[in-house]
Amino acid sequence: MQTVNLIADARYTDDKPNVLHAVKTDQLLVDGMYLKPGQKTGWHKHPDADRAYLCVQGSGELVLETVSAGNELRIPLGPGAVALAPRGVFYDLIAGPGGMVCSALSRFPVRVVEKG
Description:
Elements: E1 18-24, E2 28-35, E3 44-45, E4 51-65, E5 72-77, E6 82-85, E7 91-107, E8 113-114
Antiparallel strand pairs: 1-2, 2-7, 3-8, 4-5, 4-6, 4-7
């Protein structure tokens, strides 16, 4: 079995957030999410499964689209904070001024639908 240290194995990219598949089975996906300061994942949703985010390092926020179009719920993330992006809800993950490392957990396979 492979182990991954989300902080020691951090891999950032300049143009977009980077994703490292830390654990993947036939039912579970655990990703490392690496965002430089101000980077965003972009509005998207997972129609088939909830996705939990555990902030490991840095800070940022999970922004959920609420029932009323254009309205948002902003959930602050800091080390140790956990937030849930419910299935079928559009959301964006945004890094704070120091960047952010998160672990993202969800049922596998993960289907992504981008907004727009």
